[in-house]
Design a protein that fits this description.
This protein has about 190 residues and is mainly alpha-helical. The protein folds into two domains: about 1-110, Rna Polymerase Sigma Factor, Chain: A, CATH 1.10.1740; about 115-194, Winged helix-like DNA-binding domain superfamily/Winged helix DNA-binding domain (Arc Repressor Mutant, subunit A, Orthogonal Bundle). It has helices at about 5-10, 15-40, 40-60, 70-100, 120-135, 140-150, 155-165, 165-190. α2 packs across α3 (about 40-60). The N and C termini lie far apart (about 55 Å).
């Protein structure tokens, strides 16, 4: 098995077999991280493919200051953030169109009815949806820290390596991110959104 250094050299020579090794070595972790960031298996798969293509195209820019996996992980997080931003823009546009289509001049709904109280499974799905929305409302750094620590279960030292932040800063920013996530979730669950 190639070391990371040997793999990088092969990738820089545009060795397609090295690309296959890179993908097989890291695809599981890249996909799982994207799935947790994006919440959609098909999206995670699409973005994972984009990540590996980006790595292959940008490998000449890899200086070796960090591990290959750290660099790959950073590219993965950035692609995930970009996809979330894209969806946020599309959701705002779709919400605007839906509001215009379903409200009269007075802003009241013109179609549909109030759904019945959902069963426990539906409530759990709703709570999960609210958590995803609350997570999406965090700024990029806060979302990244929450996902790395609370979803990926990385240690503070691993997060320090990934982000370049001192451990004390990671802890304090993670604490603030968790508080913000809790507040966003509370606001959403109480229906106090603006």
């Amino acid at each position: 098995m190639d070391s990371d250094e040997a793999l990088v050299e092969r990738l820089k020579r545009r060795d397609e077999a090295a690309f296959n090794v890179l993908v097989s070595r890291h695809q599981g972790r890249v996909y799982r991280l994207l799935l947790r960031l994006l919440g959609d298996p098909a999206e995670a798969e699409d973005v994972a493919q984009e990540v590996f293509v980006t790595v292959f195209k940008a490998i000449d820019g890899f200086r070796g200051d960090s591990q290959l996996s750290t660099w790959l992980f950073r590219i993965t997080v950035n692609h995930g953030k970009n996809r979330l931003k894209y969806h946020a823009r599309r959701a705002r546009d779709a919400q605007r169109e839906l509001t215009e289509a379903t409200t009269g001049g007075d802003g009241l709904l013109t179609t549909g009815s109030v759904p019945e109280r959902p069963d426990q499974k539906a409530e759990a799905l709703q709570a999960e949806r609210l958590l995803r929305v609350a997570l999406a409302r965090l700024d990029d750094e806060q979302r990244e820290l929450v996902v790395l620590r609370d979803v990926e279960n990385l240690s503070y030292e691993e997060i320090q390596q990934q982000t370049g932040l001192p451990i004390g800063t990671v802890k304090s920013r993670l604490h603030r991110a968790r508080l913000a996530l809790t507040e966003h979730y509370r606001t959403l669950s109480e229906g106090d959104e603006p």
